[in-house]
RNA sequence: GGCCCCAUGGUCAAGUGGACUAAGACACCGCCCUUUCACGGCGGUAACCCGGGUUCGAAUCCCGGUGGGGUCACCA
């Protein structure tokens, strides 16, 4: 079997989008699953909108997700260059071939003329397409138009009597009637190739065997097939994956919230969670497994199991999955990843405290940026200004309870870990002859100033014996015990 | 509007003519654990868009409708 060669070909006009990331992922998984090659090519023929920053951002997001490429921009390879603006001579050569073989012709229509025509067609309820004005210009007419200073674009001559059938790996056979297509531009008047032309040249030259891309490209595919045929090239396999939709079922865009990978990265989503989630958007393993490692994905992915219907991006599920990964990864790693968020919030824990704090706080979050809001109790002494908290502290048994814990603490060494803390706290209610609620809630409030928060046995080891004692004293002062 | 794609719970989805009284996950609800919140465990509510065919039998095949989406650039 021939080696599978797939590619991701973003245009650098913005950050890597959720949808783009999924296309990249599917291609990458294909390559990894079947031992093929994954290529990254930059489609920067839109000179106006393309930028180097976007390219950098996209590549950095891909790397962060763990998608590495075998050939392409930055890493090189035998089929370079991998940036379309650096491949202009190549397109020129094949454009000339098309011109000479009669498949293409120069078009002198101006943008204004074209726009007027389009609007007239739209208004008349006709099909919008190029009417073919320049198709049969005589050489003399061409010379005349050139003399007027018009720079021609190059159009592809679409045979009107054909029906193009695209074989698609996820959609089956899809047919398009050429009659409604209209001659399309393959090289702009500034000499830059258009997307439809450049993809074909590049995919062919780079030996791409499978074009896996979003469904929005499906309607362009027949044009590309025509080009392959005119150039005498073998048509690759296509697989058009369905779009990712926002909550309102329209194609996902900025108004649906965070749509770029870097935004998720900044909020503290883990790359493996995003990869896992994205893989499940439009593909399913066919088993009951939902949490899948990259290794499992690489072993199981196949186009046969890609869904046809579009998928709504469900942030709730991503959050759940990300929380799952945060809770199940080694604490050390999560601690390291959480540190910048804590620093930004003004906390400066040492290594040991960081680990302890994160070990507890990670049970409460969906993404790392939420961590700071759960660590307050570990770093700041309680203020007791919450009305609910004051109410609890006002209960009559509270002085006895606080005293009891202090006595217990006095009788032991450092509170080493949660188990030790549990041991310490366990007998308190019985000793005092009180129900658990009357004991633990006041303790919680005394130590944290809040009625909600981490388990007491998680809290004590972090505060340490001295810290706990100090807070008990503060609570006693707050309720007016002077001893 | 033309062309094209799609159609199973709120969401992601399994299902490829009989095993469907339709799996699993997220979300939601309840219970348990925890005398807090979350985590975790257990359970529950909830779906084959409609109408015609084909067939002994249709979520599954065909046709039509409806709905949603994509696309119609010298953008990609």
Question: Quick recap of the structure?
Answer:
The chain is built from 20 helices and twelve strands.
Number of domains: 4
Low-pLDDT residue intervals, each spanning 5 or more residues:
none
Oligomer: single chain
Q: Output the strand order for the largest sheet.
A: 1-2-3
Largest sheet: 3 strands, parallel
Helix content: 40-55%
Morphology = elongated
First-residue to last-residue Cα separation = 85 Å
Structural write-up:
- By secondary structure, the protein is mainly α.
- It has 4 domains: 5-84 and 244-312, Rossmann fold; 87-241, 3-Layer(aba) Sandwich (Rossmann fold); 329-379, Orthogonal Bundle (Helicase, Ruva Protein, domain 3); 387-478, Arc Repressor Mutant, subunit A (Orthogonal Bundle), CATH 1.10.10.350.
- It has 20 helices and 12 strands.
- It has helices at residues 18-33, 52-65, 88-100, 111-123, 139-147, 195-205, 221-230, 261-267, 271-279, 294-300, 315-328, 331-344, 351-361, 376-379, 387-393, 398-410, 418-426, 428-432, 436-448, 456-478; strands at residues 5-8, 37-40, 71-72, 104-107, 153-156, 163-168, 172-177, 184-187, 210-214, 237-241, 244-245, 311-312.
- Strands 1-2-3 form a 3-stranded parallel β-sheet.
- It is elongated.
- It starts with a strand and ends in a 5-residue tail after the last helix.
- The mean pLDDT is 92.
- The chain binds one RNA strand of 76 nucleotides through helix 4, strand 5, strand 7, strand 8 and helix 6.
């Amino acid at each position: 079997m021939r080696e599978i060669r797939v590619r991701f070909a973003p245009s650098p006009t913005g950050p890597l989008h959720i949808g783009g990331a999924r296309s990249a992922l599917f291609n990458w998984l294909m390559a990894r699953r079947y031992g093929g090659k994954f290529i990254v090519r930059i489609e920067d023929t839109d000179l106006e909108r393309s930028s180097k920053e976007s390219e950098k951002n996209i590549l950095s997001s891909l790397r962060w997700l763990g998608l590495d490429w075998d050939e392409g921009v930055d890493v090189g390879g035998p089929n370079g260059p991998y940036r379309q603006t650096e491949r202009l001579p190549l397109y020129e050569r094949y454009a000339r071939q098309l011109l000479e073989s009669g498949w293409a012709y120069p078009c002198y229509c101006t943008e204004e003329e074209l726009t007027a025509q389009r609007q007239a067609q739209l208004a008349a309820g006709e099909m919008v397409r190029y009417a073919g004005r320049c198709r049969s210009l005589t050489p003399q007419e061409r010379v005349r138009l050139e003399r007027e200073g018009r720079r021609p674009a190059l159009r592809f001559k679409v045979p009107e009597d054909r029906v193009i059938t695209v074989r698609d790996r996820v959609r089956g056979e899809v047919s398009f009637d050429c009659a409604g297509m209209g001659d399309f531009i393959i090289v702009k008047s500034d000499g830059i190739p258009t997307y439809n032309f450049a993809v074909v040249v590049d995919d062919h030259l780079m030996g791409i065997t499978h074009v896996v891309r979003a469904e929005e490209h499906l309607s362009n595919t027949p044009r590309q097939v025509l080009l392959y045929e005119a150039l005498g090239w073998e048509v690759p396999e296509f697989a058009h994956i369905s779009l990712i939709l926002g909550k309102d079922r329209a194609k996902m865009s900025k108004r649906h919230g965070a749509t770029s990978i870097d935004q998720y990265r900044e909020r503290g989503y883990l790359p493996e969670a995003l990869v896992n989630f994205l893989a499940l958007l439009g593909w399913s393993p066919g088993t009951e497994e939902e949490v899948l490692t990259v290794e499992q994905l690489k072993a199981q992915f196949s186009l046969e199991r890609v869904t046809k219907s579009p998928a709504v991006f469900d942030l709730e599920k991503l959050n759940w999955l990300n929380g799952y990964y945060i809770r199940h990864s080694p604490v050390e790693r999560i601690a390291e990843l959480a540190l910048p968020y804590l620093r930004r919030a003004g906390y400066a824990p040492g290594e040991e405290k960081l680990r302890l704090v994160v070990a507890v706080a990670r049970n409460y979050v969906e993404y790392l940026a939420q961590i700071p809001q759960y660590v307050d109790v570990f770093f700041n002494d309680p203020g007791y200004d919450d009305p609910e908290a004051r109410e609890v502290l006002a209960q009559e048994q509270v002085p006895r309870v606080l005293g009891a814990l202090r006595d217990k603490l006095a009788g032991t060494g450092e509170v080493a870990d949660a188990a030790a803390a549990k041991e310490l706290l366990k007998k308190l209610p019985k000793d005092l002859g009180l129900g658990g609620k009357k004991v633990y809630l006041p303790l919680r409030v005394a130590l944290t100033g809040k009625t909600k928060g981490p388990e007491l046995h998680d809290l004590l080891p972090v505060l340490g014996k001295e810290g706990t004692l100090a807070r008990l004293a503060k609570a006693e002062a707050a309720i007016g015990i002077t001893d």
